[in-house]
Specification:
Strand 1 (about 10), helix 1 and strand 2 (about 30-35) form a beta-alpha-beta unit. Strands 2-1-3-4-5 form a five-stranded parallel beta sheet, sandwiched between helices. By secondary structure, it is of the alpha/beta class. The protein has five helices and five strands, in the order βαββαβαβαα. It has a single domain (about 10-145), classed as Response regulator (Rossmann fold). The chain has helices at about 15-30, 75-85, 100-110, 120-130, 140-145, and strands spanning about 10, 30-35, 60-65, 90-95, 110-115. About 35% of the residues lie in helices and about 15% in strands.
Length: about 150
């Protein structure tokens, strides 16, 4: 069981400066922050299906850059949803969103942040979704699930 108002976020971006900044920002809100330079570096990437026990999720929030090596963020999120991932607080960020990506993001119901984004915009989204995260939810133990966490 997680502590009340303690949230977990997975952040994907191939720019280490952005990962470092977002880790500081989310940590300052009391989040457990797991960062990866691309989806292939995250241990859940290789799972063929969602490995979380019923009604659990390995994270509360996923925030991914669209353009990264190994796999694009939008494709990673789409793959996670197809695997049955229970995380529903999903967002993308990019400085160059194509019309095709914009349509796919809308279809998937994803939040989008255009880089460079303003932190108050991110905080507004977080304030909104935090109201809908059950404080009594159980998160899957990420370290045991993946045998790795950053």
């Amino acid at each position: 069981m997680v502590k009340k108002n303690s949230y977990r976020i997975l952040v994907f971006d191939d720019h280490h400066e952005i990962l470092d900044l977002l880790k500081i920002v989310f940590s300052s809100r009391g989040y457990e922050v797991l960062t990866y330079p691309h989806p292939g570096a995250c241990p859940i990437f290789d799972h063929k299906s969602c490995s979380c026990p019923d009604k659990q999720s390995c994270t509360d929030i996923i925030l991914a850059d669209i353009n990264m090596p190994v796999m694009r963020g939008i494709d990673f999120i789409e793959m996670q949803l197809a695997k049955g991932c229970n995380c529903r607080n999903l967002a993308l960020m990019s400085g160059d969103l194509s019309n095709e990506d914009e349509e796919k993001a809308k279809e998937l119901g994803l939040k989008f942040f255009k880089k460079p984004f303003e932190l108050p915009e991110v905080f507004e989204w977080l304030d909104k979704i935090e109201q809908h995260i059950n404080p009594q939810r159980r998160l899957t133990d990420f370290k045991n699930l993946c045998n790795y966490a950053s």
